Amino acid sequence: MTFRLRAVRAFALLLGFFLMGLALLSAMAVLDWLVLTHPVTEKAAWIGGTVLIVTVLLSAAILRGLFTFLRAGRLGPVLEGVAVTPEDQPGLWEQVRAAAEVTRQRPPDELYLVAEVNAGVSEQSRMLGLLHGRRRMYLGLPLLAGLTVPQLRAVLAHEFGHYGNLDTRLGGVTMRGRAALLQTVKAFQEGSTELHQAIGALYVGYARMYLRTTQSVARHQELAADRMAARHAGRDTTVAALRAVPVLTGAHTHYLETYLAMGTSLGALPPAGEVHGGFRRLLAARTGERLVALSAGQRSPRPHPYDSHPPTAERIARLEQLPADDRPDEPTDGPTGLALLRDADRLFTALEARTLPQESALLRRESWDELVMSRALADAEGWSQPLRVAVARTLRTSVQGAGGAVTDSVRRDGTTGEVTDDLLPGLEEILDAFDRGLLWPEVADRMPKPHQATRLVGQSARNFIRPRIFDGLAGLVHLRLAESGQAKPDIGWSGQPGLLLPESWEKAMDDAIDSAVADTPDTASLRALLTSPHHAPA
């Protein structure tokens, strides 16, 4: 079956989705007419009333679905985006209009910058997508920060290529119909009554059939959009853009989870404009393989079963089968899409105001170095607290035992009476306790652990709890070095944010702590580091 015939079939099925609702409404109207014009006996009168109630509720559900279907093409307000006009950003609009012209499409009426690694064009359509309306484009600032200008041209041409409909006008209608059906099915699935959900099941079944039937049409449109992008920006540039987008997505996820999240639990944010703008700094510090590595350990999102996009590898393979063009290779380190913007810092700040919740206005602002230091100190406190509490309880028990009045009942899960912070021992007191032989098993038994781990005994129990004791000592060391000014914050855009320790500590700390938490604790190396002369950060 040719693409044209498949598109005609898809349009007929789309029309059938709408007609199915009208047919159901007509059938229920006939049923109600029969009930009203052919009254039953008085004893069975309740049956007629029940039928009327059920048909009215079902009709309401169907009308809701039809109304949703007809409104599916409407464009709502953009709450988390910054609108930019041609007068405000002429360079960006010039590229958008050029991509629209080469695909023989009209440019968007609106352009919004959003906080995603994504680009898209949506259109307000009516009459099952046959009538066009206002067109809107979305461009992610993180996407502009990571793509070169030629790669951005390829992405823009691909998005307009969805509406090119070079094979048949009904191809674009099919794409809009898929979006409308998915929105309608979602409305039915969110129905508040069982009758809504019952009718929804019928529509969901029809929608799945439609989506399966039109899958080949949708994928054909995607591949056609890729070819359009290759004609506009060049084959190799389009391939490079396809490879770059998932890498940028992984890098952006890493940025959000590693850097932006540092201040979440501390009630702090980076400086104004840096919530989204800090991503530029990560991209500047990492290139090539180091950037790819950020997404290596991330699980790719599970694709929607009716996703119109073929796998990226398939799209790249099909593009590489196209004849090579005579265009020169574009530099991979050329200016990014942000170079097209006037005052990018202002746009990042404006986008931040649109995307952050209102309560974020109450949060304090800290520089990146201040955020790193605050996060590092909070982590060090968290690591060291369980060890300090365990040692405090051990020391209290040993003192009471020596006096013949042991009142601290210690359980193997580490839950005993509360110990106030002002009574917690410091680093030297903890090392003294280790030297007295209190680490195994007294302190170890008082360390918090999962219920299942309380069954461990002997060497298995020691090996399980040893890393937590190690972390506790490391946290105390970090607190000591930060207090003395020897540890400095390191944002680590090319690595991981954390503390920069003196060179002597960087080289010897892990071995010294390993010795202190060994089966036969030896704290001499750690004590020697603590008493060594002041060292400047490495």
Describe the structure concisely:
By secondary structure, this protein is mostly helical.
N-to-C SSE series? HHEHEEEHHHHHHEHHHHEHHHHEEHH
Tell me roughly what share of residues is in helical segments. Answer: 55-70%
Sequence stretches where pLDDT stays below 50 over 5 or more residues: 404-417
Q: Strand count, sense and closure of the main sheet?
A: 4 strands, mixed
Q: What is the straight-line distance between the termini?
A: 69 Å
Which strand order do you get reading across the main beta sheet? 1-2-4-3
Would you give an account of this structure?
The protein is built from 19 helices and eight strands. Helix 2 (45-71) packs across helix 7. With 538 residues, it is mainly alpha-helical. Strand 7 (488-490) and strand 8 form a beta hairpin. The protein has helices spanning 3-37, 45-71, 90-102, 141-146, 149-161, 169-189, 194-213, 215-233, 235-259, 274-285, 289-292, 312-320, 344-355, 368-402, 427-435, 439-446, 458-483, 503-516, 524-530; strands at residues 82-83, 110-114, 119-123, 135-140, 268-269, 364-365, 488-490, 498-500. Mean pLDDT is 83; it is low at 404-417. The protein is extended. The longest helix has 35 residues, at 3-37. It has a four-stranded mixed beta sheet with strand order 1-2-4-3. Strands 5-6 form a two-stranded parallel sheet. Strands 7-8 form a two-stranded antiparallel sheet.
List keywords for this structure.
538 residues, mainly alpha, four-stranded mixed sheet, two-stranded parallel sheet, 19 helices, 8 strands, extended
